[in-house]
Each structure stands twice: as structure tokens, then as C-alpha cells.
Design a protein that fits this description.
It is a single chain. By secondary structure, the chain is mostly beta strands. The chain folds into two domains: 75 residues, no CATH class; 106 residues, Single Sheet (Histone H3 K4-specific methyltransferase SET7/9 N-terminal domain). Helix content is 4%, strand content 58%. It has a 15-stranded antiparallel β-sheet with strand order 1-2-3-4-5-6-7-8-9-10-11-12-13-14-15, with no helix packed on it. The chain is elongated and about 120 Å long. The N and C termini lie far apart (121 Å).
């Protein structure tokens, strides 16, 4: 009876090449097809652990923690100045699933900065925002805008304390006109005071008090 011999199945060469290409542990600089480069730790061919990524198109740099190919943990993100080419820090803090999450500080153009909590890449929770005009907001944030309870202190030291919604004064609140020595307490809606009372408050210490005191009712 004739014996039929079948050729032994051979493993495709790309299987072996793929095994050799798998990155795990610490690696020196690795380039992507796009020209981006990464230096750091890997796990199962994914960025995992400590590492630094440089994006070729923007020149931006992220240095910090990675988890299964995404920024996750603590790290800083910087971009080059278009004129001086020096790197300016944009964000330093915590990340989750490639987005800002947890406590961190962001530096905006013009000198503005935010220090506080993030969720899903948006300002959310408690935080303090320093604006370019010298005013400071400190309080709760929701979906990247002041939302909840917070205080806005203007550059002239006048301040509002109360409720916020969609980045505007909303609900019960107090506005201290410290320059005039007056206090308005009432209800706000979409940044507009709807009803309330205006009384003298620290009139004797005010730098520019109103000409006549407010009579008591």
C-alpha cells in the first residue's frame, strides 16, 4: 500500500518577525510611521509604565505614566513656543484613559492658569482659576464651567459669593462692593440680579464710598 507523505506545515515567517518585534520592558527610542517617537517602558507591544512621547507634527512632549498605550497616572504635557521654540508647560497632573482626570494644573496663553480637579479632560469638581484680568474664581466646576457654589474675586477686590450655573451667577448670592462699601444680597439668574436688597457694608473703610448712605428701612 503506497504511503502518502504530506508536507509539514510551516509557520509563516511573519509570525516569527511579529514575536521578535513585540516590545516589553524598557526600550530606547522607538519611531512610529507618523514620525512620532517614544522612549520608555512597554508591555505586550503597548506603552506601559514610565515613558516620554514626542509628537512630530506639533512638537508636543508628554512625560509620565502610561497604561496599555494611553496616558494614565501622573505626567506633564508641554508644547514649544512658536517664536522662541522653548518648551512651555501646558498641563501637569493626573491622567486617566488618555485624558486629564484628578488633580492637575493647566497653563493657558496670556498667563491664565487653573489649579484643581478634572474629569474626562474637563474642569470638574473643586478648582481655582486665575484670569488674565486679575480676577480669581474659586469653587465648584461642572463640564468645564463654574457650576455649584463658588467665589469670584475681581481685581479691585470686589467679590461675588454664591451659586453658579453654566459659568454664570445663578441662584442665591452676595456681591460685595468693597470699593463703595455696599453689599447686594439676592437672587441671580444667568448673571443678572433679579431681586434682593442693597445695604451699606464697611462704608467707613471703603476707598470710594457712595455720596449718601443707604437709609435703613
Amino acid at each position: 500500500m503506497p504511503i502518502v507523505k504530506y508536507p509539514r506545515a510551516t509557520e509563516p515567517l511573519w509570525h516569527e518577525w511579529d514575536r521578535k518585534a513585540q516590545k516589553c520592558g524598557l526600550r530606547h527610542r522607538v519611531y512610529a510611521v507618523s514620525g512620532d517617537q517614544y522612549t520608555g517602558e512597554w508591555l505586550d507591544n503597548l506603552k506601559h509604565g514610565k515613558g516620554t512621547q514626542v509628537w512630530k507634527r506639533t512638537g508636543a512632549i508628554y512625560s509620565g505614566d502610561w497604561k496599555f498605550g494611553k496616558r494614565d497616572g501622573y505626567g506633564s504635557y508641554s508644547i514649544p513656543d512658536p517664536i522662541t521654540k522653548e518648551y512651555k508647560k501646558v498641563y501637569t497632573g493626573w491622567w486617566k484613559n488618555d485624558r486629564k482626570c484628578g488633580y492637575g494644573a493647566t497653563f493657558y496663553p496670556g498667563g491664565e492658569r487653573y489649579e484643581g480637579e478634572w474629569s474626562g479632560g474637563l474642569r470638574s469638581g473643586w478648582g481655582r482659576m486665575y484670569y488674565q484680568d486679575g480676577s480669581i474664581y474659586e469653587g465648584q466646576w461642572l463640564a468645564d464651567r463654574p457650576g455649584g457654589q463658588g467665589m469670584l474675586r475681581l481685581a479691585n477686590e470686589n467679590r461675588y459669593e454664591g451659586g453658579w450655573k453654566d459659568g454664570k451667577k445663578h441662584g442665591p448670592g452676595k456681591f460685595f462692593y468693597l470699593d463703595k462699601g455696599q453689599l447686594f444680597e439676592g437672587i441671580w439668574a444667568a448673571d443678572i440680579p433679579k431681586c434682593g436688597i442693597l445695604i451699606d457694608f464697611g462704608r467707613d473703610e471703603a476707598p470710594a464710598p457712595a455720596q449718601y448712605p443707604i437709609p435703613k428701612v
